[in-house]
Please model this.
Amino acid sequence: MNKLRMKMRQNQYGFTLIEVIASLVIIGILAMMTSVGISKIFEGYLFTKDNAKTTMRAQVVLTRLMKEFSSIDAVDSSSKTSLTYSYTKNGVSIPNRTLSWSGTAGDPLMLGVNTLTEDVNDFELSYYPAYDDPGDDTWDGTQTMIGITLKMNGAMGVISSFSIRIVPRNL
Model:
């Protein structure tokens, strides 16, 4: 009878409780490491998406300003953070347009009473007599180029800087 029981025990296959618990612990550790990796990938995706939005907003603003500044007829007043000018649009002269920023981080960039973009960290206008010359803080009529530097708050507090120089063709 004992021989029969010994033979039956040898023919039984399966896992012991310790083997099952060890397998579950290993699977749990692998799942935790995978979830941490996936969360980092997702954070990277969101960071890239938000910074792409910031870049797109800045590009739209600079393109709009490039269009308007290319048609400037006269500069009425200027500073590092504002410019009042007249320009021609479709053959019609439009007087006294003002581009301005308050100088406070987070405030919007304004074109007249309209908001061009929000969440501006820094904005600066420079006026250049030639491309390689240093910029001036105000327009005195001898300049041929207007430089715009726009810094915007992006994802996770990253400040992105965008610059462009424009040559008004009607001055």
Summary: The chain is about 35% helix and 35% strand. The two ends are 113 Å apart (CA to CA). The beta strands are 72-78, 82-89, 92-101, 109-111, 114-117, 120-128, 145-153, 159-166.
